[in-house]
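User: Fold this; C-alpha cells only.

Assistant: Input:
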Amino acid sequence: MTQKILSPKSDFIFKLLFGDAGNADILADFLKNLLPFPKEEYSGLLFTDPHLKRLHRDDKLGILDIRVRTYSDFVINIEMQVLPLPELHKRILYYNAKMITEQLYKGWQFERIRNVINITICDFVMFPEIEEYHNYFFLCTPETKVLFSDTIRIDTLELPKVPQYEDGSDLWWWMSFLKAETEEDMELVAGKSPAINKAVGIVMKLSRSEEKRMLEEYREKQRMDMYSRLTGAFRDGVKQGARENSLETAGRALAMGLSREQA
C-alpha cells in the first residue's frame, strides 16, 4: 500500500524546508540549479524579515514567503502558490517594486540598488502558451529583446508542466521532490543530492508525526477557506465594477440628452 506523505507544496512544510536558516543548504542547492550565478553567491545566505516596509502609513502591507540576501546582496523572494489567486501577476510586480524601493533610504544613491528576484512556484499553469515549466522574465523590448535593466528578474516554475521522466537537469529533481505525494515518490528523488536527501528526511519524519499531520490538515483547511473568500470577493468586485461602469455610462448618456432606453 502506497503511504501518503505531507506535501512539500504546503505552506507549513515549504517554509520549514526552505525558510529555516538551519536548512540554508537546502535553499542554496535549490537556487544553484535555478539561477545563473556562481555557487559562491549562495554561501552564507541571509534570511531576512519577510514583511515589506511601508514607506507611508496607508501603503499596502506585503508579506513575502521566504526572503534572503545573497553574497552580493541580491534580494530573493521565494513563494509557493498552490491555488491561482486573482491578480497574481500584478501582485508579483508589486512585491518586486517594494523590494526595490525599500532599499533606498534618505540620502542614498540609486546605484546602491541591488537586483531583486522573485521566484514563484505554482501548482497550476500560469502561461498556457509556453511549454517550458521554468521561465524567467526581464524588462526588455518585445521586438529586439534589448534589455532595459536586469535589476528586476521574475522566475516562474509551473509544476503541472514538469515532465514525468527526467529531462537531464538537476532542477527536474527538485521539481519532482515538490510534486511528491507518496513515500514511493520520495524514494525516487532521495539521494540525488545531499540537500534533496536532507529535505526528503525532514518530510518523511514530519509525515510520521500525527501532531504535525493534524496541524497541516488544519492549516490546509484554513488556506482553502481563505482562497474561497478571496475568489468570492474578487467575483463580487468584478460584478460591482461592471454595474458601476454601466451606471456611469448611462449617466454620461443622459447628460448628453439621450433617453434612458438609448443609453
